[in-house]
Amino acid sequence: MAYNKARAEKEWIEWKEAEERQLRELGVDEDTIQRLHTYDWAQFKKERNFYYWQAPVGESIQWQPQGVSEEIRDPDSLLNTIEDEQLQDTLKKVDKLTLEMLVMRMAGYSTQQICQHLNVSAYSYYNRIKHLKEKLKKSLKKFE
Where are the domains of the chain? Predict the structure, then answer.
């Protein structure tokens, strides 16, 4: 299961409020409580960042194209297989990340798998694909 940042933060806040209540009952001054809060929050953020960027072992994606020929496995090999010069020139102007997304989509990976593997949001993925389609349409119209 993926790491849920919001749930982890909510649990931390509940734990911290209970701890601070207990510290106040024991007579600890507010300055010390605030310093503890700041320190604990910094530690929590470090831990949260670590867990957020860890890919669960069972959900890791093995980069093994399945739906395309063996020769298309990365953006460079994709560009090398294209025979149409106009299309090749257009795709050479596209950034590598978008081309990687295209290769993975051609290999049959889902949007979620692509986003997880490349560490981008679904919005970013759809936006890049939309801009790629627009560039391709524009270049095809220009060469008709």
Answer: 5-54, 75-142
The residue behind tokens 């090999």 is 77
Name the maximum alpha-carbon separation found in the chain. 81
Whether domain 75-142 has CATH 3.40.1000:
no
| pTM of structure | 0.49
Q: Percentage of residues in the chain with pLDDT exceeding 90?
A: 19
